Amino acid sequence: MLIKILPQQVVQLWEPIKYAATTADEVDEKDVPKYLNELLHALLNEKAQCFVRIDDKREIMTIGITRLLFNNITGEKYLQIQIGYAFKKAEDYLWKHDWEVMKEFAKKENCSYVGVMSRNKRVWELAKLIGMTETYRVFSVKL
Description:
Layout: E1 2-4, H1 14-24, H2 32-44, E2 48-54, E3 60-70, E4 77-86, H3 92-108, E5 113-116, H4 121-129
Parallel strand pairs: 4-5
Antiparallel strand pairs: 1-2, 2-3, 3-4
Helix pairs in contact: 1-2
């Protein structure tokens, strides 16, 4: 079952959220405190949302973090999937079900589209599995 946790539940689940977020986003060790401070603030103030999939034993299988954002060019509101992390293997049909939940949440929030950015090839596969198309690639170099 995929559930959206309430801001007051974030503290209870903070340890697995921290692990999932810093691992999925591949946060550099030096940036972890600032990253986690911003994430916690965003989750507690509902600027970011946390979705948790639990199994029959009520153990966490997956954690997803989303944000409701605005496209500065088009003016459209959209749902950005920031991270998706699996503590336990989740079959493709479960990811498809989670996608339907995300779409419904995005529609309820009057979003025009859903976006995801990741360096993880499995995330790319899942994005294609649910019908997403690649819109651009981002390249960078450290100076």
